[in-house]
Amino acid sequence: xxxxxxxxxxxxxxxxxxxxxxxxxxxxxxxxxxxxxxxxxxxxxxxxxxxxxxxxxxxxxxxxxxxxxxxxxxxxxxxxxxxxxxxxxxxxxxxxxxxxxxxxxxxxxxxxxxxxxxxxxxxxxxxxxxxxxxxxxxxxxxxxxxxxxxxxxxxxxxxxxxxxxxxxxxxxxxxxxxxxxxxxxxxxxxxxxxxxxxxxxxxxxxxxxxxxxxxxxxxxxxxxxxxxxxxxxxxxxxxxxxxxxxxxxxxxxxxxxxxxxxxxxxxxxxxxxxxxxxxxxxxxxxxxxxxxxxxxxxxxxxxxxxxxxxxxxxxxxxxxxxxxxxxxxxxxxxxxxxxxxxxxxxxxxxxxxxxxxxxxxxxxxxxxxxxxxxxxxxxxxxxxxxxxxxxxxxxxxxxxxxxxxxxxxxxxxxxxxxxxx
Length: 421
Hints:
It contains 15 helices and 18 strands. The chain has helices at 16-24, 43-47, 60-67, 95-102, 105-116, 121-129, 132-143, 176-188, 234-237, 242-248, 321-338, 351-354, 357-360, 370-375, 397-416; strands spanning 4-10, 29-33, 52-53, 71-74, 80-82, 88-89, 169-173, 192-195, 197-204, 209-216, 219-230, 258-267, 279-283, 292-300, 306-314, 344-348, 366-367, 384-386. Strands 5, 6, 12, 13, 14, 15, 16 and 17 form an eight-stranded mixed sheet that branches. Strands 1, 2, 8, 9, 10, 11 and 18 form a seven-stranded mixed sheet that branches. Helix 1 packs parallel to helix 15 (397-416), helix 5 (105-116) packs antiparallel against helix 6 (121-129) and helix 5 runs parallel beside helix 7 (132-143).
């Protein structure tokens, strides 16, 4: 098979755009997809709640990667927030009126900068001077898909780009077929793809990783690369073979503090369903803590009568049945309060209600405490770059694409200077 320039260890579609972009620009690339190590995770669970923002700084190839072979649901109203004071449609015919109801000029300038992919110092300084009451959507944009937990009034950050709420917006109806077609597209682009395998061993000398031993359908493969990108979190690595765990993650992995979980509600078919956005965020109390049922993300599914409802709970409660049942009752109460036209006929409990950690593994979407991440150690090799939830600033698709752009430029620079990362 020969030694590759770059080897990418990935799950659930992480790194697909990067692998293809590298291959199309002269890199020899191997992608090792270990998704089958987490067999109970469903397509909806690996897709997540955040949707996709088409910000101006995304390339055409990145948009293609996020839409190719996918069933996408465009939101004519854009990203939709629904606090108690009334809905905010970020694009569409009512957006100007609704945004003006909530937004100061400083807030609008902030979101326009986010759409362009760069926050100027002047714009950030202006948003900092606003009261939380006038600028809470900016705080929420920094908080929603973040991987580091902060209280709502501490969430504003200049270090990373928040989700660009004013960008055109859609969400994807994930399927195993779409992921398979994405892998086939990579193969056709010249990427060497290994899927359905189990990582059995890693050869390293303390300074570099030389090769991996992968077992696929009973056959062993030795995969060599000059540089490696590892896109698994420490706690995801904990589900791999013990030998591999000890090599990749000899230190204690940071455990998530919060987990995003997914309920489903089926409702009676009524005409009013057509007027409901396909994706919207209900915030019960803007000034309350942004977790549990105080923030719920509603997302239309393939069934017009069914919504997925995503919310974030303490990770310690993830498999506690009584806690999950209590959350269900609170969801019903809040739907009755905010969406009384919906007549719930059935509620689908999260996967965590049925399966154990051994079945599901760590949460696909989560939040860590900043102190835990700062304390976590990573094994360091000269030819390895870590790009996983612990390193990302946020976990929505747009933010991940921005991170992969940075990785691409790092690898291109390394090739130009003939050095390893």
